[in-house]
Design a protein that fits this description.
single chain; alpha+beta; five-stranded antiparallel β-sheet; 15 strands
């Protein structure tokens, strides 16, 4: 990290010591058009404790990039629940049901070559999303009145509860799952658990998601799916090593040195917060 970013990160951490107990960040969900209008597209933005107002954009794909960190103070050494998903009042219509769609393969950073490629065999990231409302309702019927439950109610529910697995060869389990339903004001706020599995070496890993209101997750199929977005996770790297992996995807897309410094500052704050909590 640049000297300016290190100095600024330290100064902010000392100025706001309580930030260490509140670090979290979300995928902000919205629409590019009016709510309940066919063809409006779901959008992703950033909301949380990092001191950035716009998301970095991946050089290769043009998609938004979110940071993530296995081993943060909420999740333990192989888990995290950030980023979450959040919409604000008026962003969606009451009762809109949204989910995620898992795309592509799990990508792994090679620090020696400075490149990304499909993850090694036996390594995975599992995301525990939710069962679509109809699947959850069928499961409740199975528990309370099994004679009235639809066929395969238990198996269908367990399929979603086993989570979505990203690997170097693709997606296993549900490639689309439920996130949440909007309240009467159009809001929701949800955090799911991400786990890294297998004999994963310490490095950075990247998954790709997309927001959807497709009927398969209980939605109306009214809105266009969002543009895909990436999450780049740190697993056991130093802050400088993770910065190198993260910035390898976005550096050419950051237009000004000050913007790059603010991004590095935000990533540095996460590391400072974790050290402060564990000390």
């Amino acid at each position: 990290m640049h000297a300016f970013a290190r100095t600024a990160a330290l100064a902010l951490a000392l100025q706001f010591p309580l930030l260490a107990h509140a670090i979290h960040f979300d995928v902000k969900v919205g629409l590019d058009g009016p709510v309940s209008t066919p063809g409006s597209q779901l959008t992703t933005g950033f909301f949380g404790d990092l001191p950035i107002t716009t998301l970095p954009v991946d050089t290769l794909t043009g998609y938004n990039v979110f940071p993530g960190d296995f081993g943060d103070f909420e999740g333990g050494p192989r888990a995290t629940d950030d980023p979450g998903f959040q919409s604000f009042a008026g962003a969606l219509a009451a009762g809109d049901v949204l989910g995620y769609r898992a795309l592509g393969t799990l990508q792994q950073w090679d620090a020696a070559s400075g490149t990304w490629s499909d993850a090694q065999a036996g390594i995975g990231i599992r995301l525990y999303g939710g069962a679509p409302p109809a699947v959850a309702e069928a499961y409740l019927t199975y528990l309370m009145m099994p004679q009235y439950a639809p066929p395969n109610a238990l198996a269908n529910y367990q399929y979603y509860m086993n989570g979505t697995l990203f690997s170097g060869t693709g997606i296993s389990g549900p490639d689309a799952a439920f996130i949440d339903g909007a309240s009467s004001s159009g809001t929701f706020h949800t955090h799911f658990d991400f786990f890294i599995e297998g004999a994963a070496p310490a490095t950075a890993y990247m998954i790709t998601l997309q927001l959807t209101d497709d009927a398969v997750i209980g939605g109306r199929g009214l809105y266009e799916d969002s543009e895909p977005f990436h999450i780049v996770f740190n697993y056991g790297l130093s802050q400088a090593q993770y910065d190198a992996a993260f910035l390898s995807r976005v550096t050419p897309a950051v237009p000004e040195p000050s913007a790059a410094a603010m991004l590095a500052l935000g990533l540095g704050l996460l590391a400072l917060a974790r050290r402060r909590v564990r000390s």
